[in-house]
């Protein structure tokens, strides 16, 4: 299998070589520390071993639960917020067709996976209930506590809708919970109602949980191969385990921190395939929630190319010099689209006749990178061979490992999120929630 490739040639020239080498040395030390802590069962480090610790028995149970839900429902609603849904959504959108349900080969029997509990929009939930009205439905609810406001509200409403339609017993067969092993409101409900349930390990934080049942169950419900996803993650876990300078996660983490030390405080992840836009949103949460602490952190932003070459490109090219970019490309397309010759050539495109659209997309990426670097915007290149479960699994693990290294290099704890609690306390006070918070 071809592997993920990282190209730093268009970014490393923007930093002092000695400074970058020193950062490499620090990053190598961090990898060693992470490995030692993970071996000791360190708090919040269970994600490091997930590609190996999710065993065959759990995979079989997840596939069985997904198959049962798929047999009962036309639409499966995944309820969750933050890391409880972004990873699953990223993988599902990456692996799905761009026009689901419209292509001739799309299966009429394939359930559609949709998401709820990630906002407080009355219109969103109202329109979802309208869409579900004449369809068979099931629910996967993902939450360690079961009391986070957005998913808890959505699940209460969806649970009531299912019980109204199917009764309590059949509704229970259409509900699967992914939650804490022992504690929390959702665990209590799952045991009381006899729902099928899966565990989010205590040592795996939400934004690092996509390779646990929190992500694997929704992905399996959408019909994708979670075994291949985990195989790709295992390959990348091996590739990023060694405390050496040519570890790709070390390279990425060390370079982005060196650029940050040079005053570049914002990173744009520019994806050159529309299917990877949701993955960029997952990346944004992963790095933003992991690094943004103590007045520190590289601000994560994302762009969908080449569309955004016609929107925020002006700012990237000619705005404040606080940016560096990471481009994410795909070497091989699944389809072949060739530009034809036109006798009139009124659009002036005959010079492209006979060339594949994917080739032109690669050239656009290279051209934009050259322009950005010339304008003082360093660019790191990441490329995966193709969009498959295996390559997406590898990419997810690569970013998780890089994020952990990068946060520790910044001098913050990449596994907590104390700032998230501030808005929750204010909201509870304004809503008049009883108790102290």
Q: What's the topology here?
A:
Blueprint: E1 5-7, H1 17-39, H2 50-53, H3 56-72, E2 75-79, H4 86-95, E3 112-116, H5 122-132, E4 137-142, H6 149-173, E5 175-179, H7 185-193, E6 196-199, H8 213-221, H9 226-239, H10 248-261, E7 266-271, H11 277-291, E8 299-304, H12 313-318, E9 323-330, H13 357-374, E10 379-384, H14 389-410, H15 420-431
Parallel strand pairs: 2-3, 2-4, 4-5, 5-6, 7-8, 7-9, 9-10
Antiparallel strand pairs: 1-10
In short:
The protein is of the alpha/beta class.
Description of the structure:
The chain has 437 residues and is α/β, with parallel strands linked by helices. The chain has two domains: 5-40 and 230-410, Glucose-6-phosphate isomerase like protein, domain 1 (Rossmann fold); 46-227, Glucose-6-phosphate isomerase like protein, domain 1 (Rossmann fold, 3-Layer(aba) Sandwich). The chain is 48% helix and 12% strand. The chain has helices at residues 17-39, 50-53, 56-72, 86-95, 122-132, 149-173, 185-193, 213-221, 226-239, 248-261, 277-291, 313-318, 357-374, 389-410, 420-431, and strands spanning 5-7, 75-79, 112-116, 137-142, 175-179, 196-199, 266-271, 299-304, 323-330, 379-384. The chain has a five-stranded mixed sheet with strand order 1-10-9-7-8, sandwiched between helices. The relative contact order is 0.16.
Question: What are its keywords?
Answer:
437 residues; alpha/beta; Rossmann fold; 2 domains; 5-stranded mixed β-sheet; 15 helices; globular
Q: What spatial form do the alpha-carbon principal axes imply?
A: globular
Share of residues in helices: 40-55%
CATH class of the largest domain: Alpha Beta
* CATH architecture tag of the largest domain: 3-Layer(aba) Sandwich
Query: If you compute it from the alpha carbons, what radius of gyration comes out, rounded to the nearest whole angstrom?
Result: 23 Å
Structural class: alpha/beta
Q: What is the end-to-end distance?
A: 51 Å
CATH topology of the largest domain: Rossmann fold
The pLDDT mean sits at 93
- Sheet with the most strands: spatial strand order: 1-10-9-7-8
- Tell me the CATH superfamily of the largest domain: Glucose-6-phosphate isomerase like protein, domain 1
Strand % is 5-15%
């Amino acid at each position: 299998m071809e592997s993920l490739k990282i190209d730093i040639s268009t970014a490393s020239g923007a930093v002092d070589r000695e400074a970058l080498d020193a950062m490499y040395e620090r990053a190598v030390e961090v990898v060693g520390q992470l490995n030692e802590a993970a071996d000791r069962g360190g708090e919040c480090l269970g994600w490091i071993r997930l590609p190996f610790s999710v065993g065959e028995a759990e995979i079989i149970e997840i596939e069985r639960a997904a198959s049962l839900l798929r047999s009962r429902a036309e639409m499966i609603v995944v309820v969750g917020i933050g890391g409880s849904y972004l990873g699953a959504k990223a993988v599902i959108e990456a692996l799905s067709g761009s026009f689901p349900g419209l292509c001739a080969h799309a299966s009429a029997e394939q359930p559609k996976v949709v998401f709820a509990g990630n906002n407080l929009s009355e219109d969103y939930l109202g329109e979802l209930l309208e869409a579900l009205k004449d369809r068979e439905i099931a629910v996967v609810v993902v939450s360690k506590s079961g009391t986070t406001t957005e998913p808890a509200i959505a699940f209460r409403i969806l649970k009531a809708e299912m019980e109204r339609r199917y009764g309590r017993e059949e509704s229970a067969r259409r509900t699967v919970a992914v939650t804490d092993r022992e504690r929390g409101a959702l665990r209590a409900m799952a045991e009381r109602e006899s729902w099928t349930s899966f565990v989010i390990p205590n040592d795996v934080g939400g934004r690092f949980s996509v390779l646990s049942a929190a992500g694997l169950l929704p992905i399996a419900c959408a019909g994708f191969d979670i075994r291949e996803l985990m195989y790709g993650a295992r390959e990348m876990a091996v590739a990023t385990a060694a405390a050496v300078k040519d570890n790709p996660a070390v390279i990425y983490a060390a370079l982005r921190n060196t650029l940050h030390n040079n005053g570049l405080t914002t990173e744009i992840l520019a994806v050159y395939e529309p299917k990877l836009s949701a993955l960029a949103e997952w990346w944004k949460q992963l790095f933003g929630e992991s690094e943004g602490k103590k007045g520190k952190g590289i601000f994560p932003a994302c762009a969908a190319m080449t569309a955004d070459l016609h929107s925020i490109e002006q700012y990237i090219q000619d705005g404040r010099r606080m940016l560096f970019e990471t481009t994410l490309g795909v070497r091989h397309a699944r389809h072949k689209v060739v530009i034809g010759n036109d006798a009139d050539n009124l659009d002036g495109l005959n010079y492209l006749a006979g060339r594949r659209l994917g080739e032109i997309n690669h050239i656009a990426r290279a051209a934009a990178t050259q322009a950005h670097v010339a304008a003082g915007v360093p660019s790191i290149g990441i490329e995966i061979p193709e969009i498959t479960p295996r390559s997406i699994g590898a990419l997810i693990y690569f970013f998780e490992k890089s994020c952990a290294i990068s946060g520790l290099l910044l001098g913050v704890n990449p596994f907590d999120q104390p700032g998230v609690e501030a808005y929750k306390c204010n909201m509870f006070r304004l809503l008049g929630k009883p108790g102290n918070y």
